[in-house]
Amino acid sequence: MFTKIDETLQWIHGLIPHGMKPGTQRMEWMLARIGNPEHRIRAVHVGGTNGKGSTVSYLRHIYQQAGLKVGTFISPYITSFNERIMINGVPISDEDLIKAANIVYPLTKAVEAETDLGLPAEFETVTMLSFVYFGKMNPCDLVIYEVGLGGRLDSTNVIHPLVSVITNVAMDHMKQLGNTITSIAREKAGIIKNGVGIITTAEHPDALKVIREQAKAKQSNLYVFGSEFTVTATGHDADGEHFNFDATYLHEKDLILQMRGVHQLKNAAAALMTVDYLDTFFGIHAEDQEIRNGLRDTAWPGRFEQMSDKPRIIIDGAHNVQGTEALVETVHRYYPGRAIHVLYAALKDKQYEKMVQLIETVASEITLTTIPFPRAAGSRLLYDASRHPLKREDPDWKHALNVMINGTGDQEVLLICGSLYFISLVRAELLSRRKAAQSH
To answer: Dihedral of CA 146/152/158/163: which sign?
Structure first.
């Protein structure tokens, strides 16, 4: 059995990657073996293409302000693996992770040996660890589960939540989910359960049609953004986004988000509608001031995050077309007229050509780089996709980072964006430099 965190993580990361073995049968088999700990978890289930992580984070901060013990299950992580399973923003300890792994490891072996279902994938195993942790070891008042991929066949889809949320539906993971908005929406809408309320900020007509049909078939009350709940933007400044929110019972004026961008208003709206729903049907209450403070406190690493002021460095994990469009809009909104230097890396299984051509519309110059990761697009591939007159290729991202930090003036912005894997490497590097500078 495991005694050290390194061997535990080595085992987890050595399993088949996420999305390679869709289906919930292995999960159901393993959970039944240990008395279905997921049945003891009061959960909120959050799916969608973009905005899942931010919505989870808003909910966590609001309910933490309300004095609840709030678990979160998220992916991917930005700083350390343990962030995937947290309580009140504190990652699972190495000790508890090892304990949970020693319960889950024999189950993964048993399902492979005793059935024809095969060995669970990495994401399934991590989901199992979370069920053991929240359902057996460290129960919470509420656990917010972020869907890994799709929804219908995702390993988190064995929970029976109090309410489900679908943030939006856009083109991403087409290989696994299909090539149309309708087919992707069908996968996302797979998290809708019989009689369980469903909240959505999806706006694409094809996606909404699928979600409406599924909600009707499952006799689930559906709350649609722009219809059952709305936001009104009232401006933005150095503090962030200002807005009003209206739903059936919850009406909030002059709310502030430090998370920047118009798209964040929709993510906050999804969270606020969830708060309204949980209060109305389950008596899980948050006071007005707790809601305000929770929203204002929410910061999400790698989402339009400012890492330095001189020069101004912004990092953003816009890793698909819709995320990149939102990033372009946010840059225009907050830094009109400023010179923007862009450092970019992406994964080759994403629509990188479209994304490069979108992001370079805000760039005064762009450097295309890559990271040591099997799915990373090579810097030459990205360079060839770019049409910018001032483009550079540098396969060494650290070298590119140094050159660009030195070449960015005080009134200019260095925007580092693309793959979340890239952003997590850059973030760690910038934080260690900051720490080194402070110790001198």
So the answer is: positive
Task: Kindly list the distances between the CA atom of residue 284 and the CA atoms of 54, 66, 225, 291, 405, in Å, as whole numbers in the listed order.
Answer: 21, 9, 22, 13, 47
Q: Where are the domains of the chain?
A: 5-297, 305-439
Assign a CATH topology to domain 5-297: UDP-N-acetylmuramoyl-L-alanine:D-glutamate ligase (3.40.1190)
CA angle 354, 359, 361 (to 5 degrees): 105
pLDDT (tens digit, 9 = 90+) per residue, 380-439?
999 999 999 999 999 999 999 999 999 999 999 999 999 989 999 999 999 999 998 888
Q: How far apart are CA 370 and CA 428, in angstroms?
A: 16
415: nearest Cα among 337, 294, 288, 308: 308
Q: Are strands 312-316 and 305-308 parallel, antiparallel or unpaired?
A: antiparallel
Q: How many CA atoms lie within 13 A of 325 on its CB side?
A: 9
Helices (DSSP H) in 52-93: which residue ranges?
52-65
CA dist 336 → 241, 329, 413, 437 (Å): 16, 10, 11, 31
List beta partners, residue 251.
Answer: 246
The tokens describing 71, both together, are 């678990």
User: Can you list the positions of beta strands (E) in 4-136?
Assistant: 43-47, 70-73, 85-87, 90-91
Q: What is the pTM of this model?
A: 0.92
**Contact call for residues 178 and 184 (beta carbons, < 8 A):** yes
Helix or strand or coil: residue 411?
A: coil
CA atoms within 13 Å, Cβ hemisphere of 375: 13
Same fold yes or no, 5-297 and 305-439: no
Backbone angles phi, psi at 127, to 5 degrees: -60, -45
As a whole-number percent, the residues of the chain with pLDDT over 70 amount to 98
**Domain made up of 305-439: CATH architecture:** Alpha-Beta Complex (3.90)
Phi, psi of 390 (to 5 degrees): -115, 75
pLDDT band at 204 (very low <50, low <70, confident <90, very high): very high
Q: Which residues contact 6 (CB under 8 A, 6 or more apart)?
A: none
- Nearest-Å Rg of the Cα atoms of the chain is 22
Which helix or strand (DSSP H or E) is residue 270 part of?
helix 262-282
